[in-house]
Every structure is written in C-alpha cells, then in structure tokens.
Amino acid sequence: MNENIDEYYMMEAIKLAKKGIGFTNPNPLVGAIIVKNGQVIGRGYHKRYGELHAEREAIKNCIEEGNKELMKGATIYVTLEPCCHRGKQPPCTEALIEAGFQRVVIGSMDPNPLVAGNGVEILKNAGIKVEGPVANKDCLSLNKIFFHYITKKKPLVTLKVAETLDGKIATFTGESKWITSSKSREKVHFDRHKNMAILVGVATVLKDDPMLNVRLENLEKVSNPIRIVCDTNLNTPIDSKLVQTAKQQETWIVTSIKEEKICAAFKELGVKIINDSSLIKVEKNGHKTIDLKALINYLGARGIDSLIVEGGGSINYSALEEKIVDQIQVYIAPKIFGGIDAKTAVEGQGVKLPKDAFIVENMELERIGEDLFIEGRVKYP
Ligand code: AOF
Ligand code: ZN
Asked: Which pTM does this prediction carry?
C-alpha cells in the first residue's frame, strides 16, 4: 500500500516537473511534493535554468501556504536526487535538512559528478530517511536529455523524419507540405520546444525556406530552438526566413567561409557565423564539408544538451555515417507517393550490404492520429 502511495506522489511530482519542459535546459526537469499526514502541503518544480531548484520551490510554496511548521517530520518527494553542491543555486540538501524533513523519497539518482550519490549520503548522515528510487523508469525517461548530456557532455541527437508508407519525404515535384497529420505536427513542434537546437543542411533552406520555430496554440510561452545550418560555402540566401528572423530566434550558420565582407551581411541581421577551422573536414579531393562529430562536441561545450536533425536526406545520411545520431523518430503517414525522383529520408551513398545497415534498437511504436510514430536508439556497426 505504502509503495503505491509513494508511486502516486512521485507521478504527481513528475507532472509538475514537466511544466518546466523547454525552459530548464541544459539543467534537468525536476518536480517536488511535500506531504504530511496524507495531505499535500507544498509543491514546486524547477521553472527555468539558473533559477530555484524544485525542492526550494516546494519549500517556498509550503511556507507561503502557511505550512512552515508542518514541514517538520514531513515527507518530500523529489524526482531527482537532491543536489549538494553550490552551483547557480545553493545545495538543496541544506534546505531539506533545515526544513526538518523526516523522509526524502527520490525518483532517480543524479549522475552529475558533483552530486552522484553524495546528496543521498549527506541527507542520511543528517538522520533523514532516504528512500527510492520510486517510479524510476518514468523519472529516467523524464530526463532522457539531461542524463545523456551530463554524462557525455554532448547533446542528445534525434534524427526526425516524416515520411509516407513508401518512405518518401516529398513528391517528385518536391512538395512536402504536408505529409503527416496535424496531430503529428503538434508533437513535432512540442519536441522543438523541448530541444535546444535544430540542425538542417543548406539544401533544405534553399528548397523549403523553413522557419524551424515552435508553432503551438495550447502553450502560453514557448522556447524556440537555436537554428543551426550546415552551409560549407555560405549559400544561405540573405533573404531567407531564417536570416531575416535571426534577431527573433537564434540562427547559427556553420561554414568554411571566413571573408569578413561576406559574413558581415549575415552578422548585421543577427546571424552567428561559426567558421572555426576545427569544424571543417577537407576530403582527399579537396572538397570541404562540416565535421559533424566535431560540431556535436562544439555544441556540447557550449551547453547545448539536445539537437534535432531535421533533414534533408544528405545531412541525414552524413549524421548517421558520422555516428552522431543517438535516436531516430519516424512519423509514417498512411499515404503512398511513389516516383523514382521523389526524395527519401536518408540519401548520401548508403551502405553497401544489408549487414552494414544502421540498426535501430528498442523500437517503440505509437499511433498518433492516423500516423504511426516510431522511436528507437541507433546502434552502429
Ligand atoms: C536544477 N534544478 O530542481 C535540481 C537540480 O547550477 P545549479 O545550482 O542550478 O545546479 C544544477 C545542477 O543541480 C544540475 O546539473 C543537477 O545535477 C542538480 N539538480 N538542478 O537545475 C533542480 N534539483
Ligand atoms: Zn538542488
């Protein structure tokens, strides 16, 4: 019975944590609930990067509700192990000890090397009963991005594809609006809100002139991803939507072009030009390309914890070939386009033999409206 109660409150704390989606990156999503004698007396979640942690938000809420004294001997449910280091915020362990909790129930451990079990240890040493992990699977999936980033220092890279049943991402005339249903597109936009950055190749900019922003009606505030264009020769048109809106939504162009005169026009419009030589690969024939592996490390070092690769076929193949893709998300619409010239999701050279294929593991399948949605992790040969 007790276990079910703990699980119930942890699931409630997860719901609270999810309110922070899009705003806490590269920090985790965390929710906390304070319970005394079967009554919830305080709740909180981590609202925004750098601001109060969930535990202190819940304590603050508890005090504001006039329940300060009740905290003594209460239980606090936290989806992530409380921190014990001084970062942008003071250690949560100190706040929990000071408030006088009798019991702390956690949903997942914090792999952040600055915490990693030390939070639990400090609480236990202070005589607090620490229990859990409770609802661990849900707490782990809540922070898939954070757990990846904090251990690897690289963004979690998702390759996202919307295609027909016969694997086409456009008709032979190049039309692609729209393949999937509005319900699927809603999820795509929510994922853009959740992820810190979105990557396309210049071919997609030239062909589609996309906005790559978040268009969601049911959210009050959204967090638009940083738009990153791989554009070796700086062919992005100055009058493209990405460039023209760069002051409203961050736009980075990764290029080999260094001439200040050419770059200046983009910079004036708010575009960040990244022309670091370490991000350029020169092939045997002298052909220059963006080194995606180096780019991923570059982004990780700059606090980017999550990246969606959103086409086209050429960059999608390069991303797989350079082994930067961690997971793949495919939306399949119940339609068939046909056409030998109609584009497919992954182009490039392709693998030589079936045994050389990129393998997708732990595939999960979901139905979104009429479409199928598949998510899985990419395993490399
Ligand atoms: C959060 N929110 O609710 C919890 C976090 O720089 P700081 O002080 O904000 O510390 C960030 C680290 O604190 C983060 O990487 C994680 O290990 C831990 N817990 N962080 O942003 C929270 N509980
Ligand atoms: Zn904390």
From this structure: 0.94
